[in-house]
Amino acid sequence: MTLFGPWYVPHNPVMQRVAIVTGGAKPDSIGHAVALGLLEEQMHVAVADLYEAGFSTLSECFCIRTDANDADAVERMVCEVAGKFGRIDALVNCVGGSWGITAQDLTAPPPRGFRGVTNCSLEDWRTIIGANLDSTFYACRAAAPHLKKQGGAIVNVASIAARKGIPPGAQGSSGPYAVAKAGVMALTRQLALELGQFGVRANCVVPGVIASGRLARVLEISGKDQGPEGPLAQIPMRRVGTVAETAALIVALCTDDTSYMTGVMVDINGASYAA
Predict the structure, then answer these.
(1) Which of 8, 51, 138, 177 is labelled catalytic?
(2) Is residue 138 among the annotated active site residues?
(3) The pTM is what?
């Protein structure tokens, strides 16, 4: 073992990095803002999503229609990106949601009523676990061999729901969603342990209530003062977070500015978890 380790190699600015963002096509989403932010970092960016209507807003990105809950489709997408650009340096998993990720789910309002782990259907459980945990696992597993070639970064996205749970009666989220996002956090820690020797970092951003398009659809059924994790007035900073704030953090975790950070869960929630 050397002082800095065999994988501590400063990035060659002549070599343009390549990033994959899953769930980045909707213009009102965190993933979309991440894709644009990575472009500003001079990376090639591939966006994998089912929401083809958003591809036209990402003209500088390489967009691929992908069902993130289909392991074979994810494997094909990763291979296509690696084949086109010759490498993969960063993977950002923004895909997911509290009620599903089919083409219909992406624009539909959330189902009404509370779904906990004791009253959800098996279909609900499998859908939400698949949309959030399985999809993240599939992408990480497919990208890992490519990232290991030169080192890189994985950033997964969890939720404050993984830390606090979803209170019974809440609208727009679910107990299975909290469980799935807790799984994403555990997956990230395990990835950091397994991939660290190859110079691959794995971190997880844990947002609170963020003013995305999905939040707007939740507030339509829950009321403007009631977020999926509880009353918005309980947030110590007295406001929700923005998509831009969350995306900026994720982008930073893909750069050399955070080159010694790995296995970390980074909360961005206005002190909601502490309250």
Answers:
(1) 177
(2) no
(3) 0.91
